[in-house]
Amino acid sequence: MLPPSPPGWRLLRLGLVLVSIGTVLEASVQANSATGALNVLLIIVDDLRPSLGCYGDKLVRSPNIDQLASHSLLFQNAFAQQAVCAPSRVSFLTGRRPDTTRLYDFNSYWRVHAGNFSTIPQYFKENGYLTMSVGKVFHPGISSNHSDDSPYSWSFPPYHPSSEKYENTKTCRGQDGELHANLLCPVDIVDVPEGTLPDKQSTEQAIRLLEKMKTTGSPFFLAVGYHKPHIPFRYPKEFQKLYPLENITLAPDPQVPDGLPPVAYNPWMDIRQREDVQALNISIPYGPIPVDFQRKIRQSYFASVSYLDTQVGHLLSTLDDLQLANNTIIVFTSDHGWALGEHGEWAKYSNFDVTTRVPLMFYVPGRTALLPKAGEKFFPYLDPFDSTTELIEPGRQTTDLVELVSLFPTLAALAGLQVPPHCPVPSFHVELCREGQNLLKHFQFHDVENDPYLHSNPRELIAYSQYPRPADSPQWNSDKPSLKDIKIMGYSIRTIDYRYTIWVGFNPDEFMANFSDIHAGELYFVDSDPLEDHNIYNDSQHGELAQSLMP
Ligand SMILES: *[C@@H]1O[C@H](CO)[C@@H](O)[C@H](O)[C@H]1NC(C)=O
Ligand SMILES: *[C@@H]1O[C@H](CO)[C@@H](O)[C@H](O)[C@H]1NC(C)=O
Ligand SMILES: *[C@@H]1O[C@H](CO)[C@@H](O)[C@H](O)[C@H]1NC(C)=O
Ligand SMILES: *[C@@H]1O[C@H](CO)[C@@H](O)[C@H](O)[C@H]1NC(C)=O
Ligand SMILES: *[C@@H]1O[C@H](CO)[C@@H](O)[C@H](O)[C@H]1NC(C)=O
Ligand SMILES: *[C@@H]1O[C@H](CO)[C@@H](O)[C@H](O)[C@H]1NC(C)=O
Ligand SMILES: *[C@@H]1O[C@H](CO)[C@@H](O)[C@H](O)[C@H]1NC(C)=O
């Protein structure tokens, strides 16, 4: 018998041999512009794993994002709290874990379902910022009250690209010459409805807003949510040329591993529903997808990333042209990762590194880079097709583990706003508090070598993720169970050394996890098994560790 879920985490944590993360620096950064406040440009990408040049990917061409990284602090080990869109976005935008937002599916609005929690943009709005949303920032639908949490979060009505409505319609030209709702959907832009794509429209709108903001005196908070590389892979077909099929490898571990507990596996049902995948008649739940088609999925994912990179490039070069690069913080991240065939899995919906690990970087003028001199360009547009473009060296990096839930306090600190206090447990009645860490200490570069606190013990850092399941074996709704159908919760701890996951009984009526009711366990050591293919949870020699992690 155990208390409700948020304390459940505490219980899990109490059992750890690990101690607290240390006092967190509460001091705020003083804005360095004459007018005071720093603006914020928050770029949120949908389903982007760190397959980027700046994260060491040798194949993917992402020169504009790499250029941003070269002026930023890049987090090599950043993790989402649940690897699916709405729960992850509501979690990091409110700074609370899914056990507090009580959103594990797509079907409730936290303000009425869990608590009237403040959001990052709401906090900036209440502190005198003009806040604006372009594209997919909140997940659409009931999880943001069909309004992207307006009016609380935004100063103006959020913008959605008009061509968004074609994303799931039959706009992909098949080999038969007909239009289909395919997974692989390289398009000729002049050929698609409205002659444009959602991310192009979002970039254009964000640019219009930046131009407008230049003339207002107020600080602004602009969130831009890009759709690609979310499925379907609908992108300008020329980007395919960057990735000839013969150069595309399969995942290094394309088989479903022997020791994988069935409850951990996500059967990627959304992919199977696309017309081109249906035609392959792939067996449920384990597949596999024919290897030629696996290559094509990877090709289209990478091509979508390069297309996204050009949109980021246009946006950032405008920021530069408007001379806003010296007083605007830029954050670049994603809601979660995506499996590209690792462990025989596709899509998100799991607790593995491939789906929970996200790109995360912060550009802070004068802090992660010197201030640009008058007329100096930090972010000139780079053409991914230009093969003479050298790989841009990354800027500052840290391998310390961090969580997306820490975005809220960190952005507040970087902008010079008061950092919300730590949440009590439980915190359903508290509108403004934070469950994440203020990561400001990572931005204090002076005397880094001797900073006792920054290097106190990276082994103590933990990133938590979780994933719900309706059953012990994969079935039609294992990827996205509705709250009422959740029977098992997989709680996962990632440290610098290992990932440890236990799948325990869960009562959705009481939001109660039962840590005595263990359905399966997973343990992977990062050094010996970085891809998480050899589950050693049962291995007796690790029994002691497993025991110590238990409440
Ligand atoms: C940013 O650059 C513009 C143009 O060079 C300049 O007018 C402004 O004062 C600069 N702001 C800061 C904070 O350096
Ligand atoms: C929730 O918070 C918003 C923003 O602070 C406030 O306007 C609203 O009245 C609150 N609602 C309730 C039910 O407390
Ligand atoms: C959600 O939206 C509806 C319809 O616009 C509105 O009446 C309701 O007050 C909103 N809920 C909250 C908590 O603001
Ligand atoms: C494909 O691989 C070949 C051989 O390694 C290489 O020469 C070529 O540049 C690659 N093409 C692209 C577009 O990366
Ligand atoms: C671990 O033990 C459980 C219970 O005995 C068993 O069902 C499972 O298959 C074992 N897993 C591995 C990877 O050996
Ligand atoms: C699809 O697969 C099933 C089971 O492997 C097989 O019986 C059926 O004939 C296949 N259908 C097509 C159209 O290939
Ligand atoms: C928790 O699980 C244990 C083991 O299955 C069971 O005996 C106990 O009744 C469960 N507690 C609750 C509250 O369901």
Automatic annotation (TrEMBL):
Q: Which Pfam families match?
A: Sulfatase
InterPro entries referenced in this protein's UniProt entry, alphabetically: Alkaline_phosphatase_core_sf, IDS, Sulfatase_CS, Sulfatase_N
One biological process term from GO is: heparan sulfate proteoglycan catabolic process
Q: Which PROSITE patterns match?
A: SULFATASE_1 (PS00523), SULFATASE_2 (PS00149)
Listed GO CC annotations:
lysosomal lumen
Q: Which UniProt keywords apply?
A: Calcium, Disulfide bond, Glycoprotein, Hydrolase, Lysosome, Metal-binding, Signal, Zymogen
Q: Name all Sulfatase N-terminal domain ranges.
A: 39-416
Q: Which GO terms describe its molecular function?
A: calcium ion binding; iduronate-2-sulfatase activity
Q: Which cofactor does it need?
A: Ca(2+)
Q: Which domain of life is it from?
A: Eukaryota
Subcellular location, principal? other
Q: Which reaction does it catalyse?
A: Hydrolysis of the 2-sulfate groups of the L-iduronate 2-sulfate units of dermatan sulfate, heparan sulfate and heparin
How far does the signal peptide extend, from start to end residue? 1-27
What EC number(s) does its UniProt record assign?
Answer: 3.1.6.13
CDD domains linked: iduronate-2-sulfatase
Coiled coil regions in record: none
| Location within or outside the cell | Lysosome
Role description:
Lysosomal enzyme involved in the degradation pathway of dermatan sulfate and heparan sulfate.
Similarity section: Belongs to the sulfatase family.
Binding partners and assembly = Monomer. The 58-kDa mature form is composed of two chains resulting from proteolitic processing, the 42-kDa chain and the 14-kDa chain that remain stably associated and form the 58-kDa intermediate form which is enzymatically active.
State what protein this is by name.
Iduronate 2-sulfatase
Source organism of this protein record: Ictidomys tridecemlineatus
- Gene that encodes it: IDS
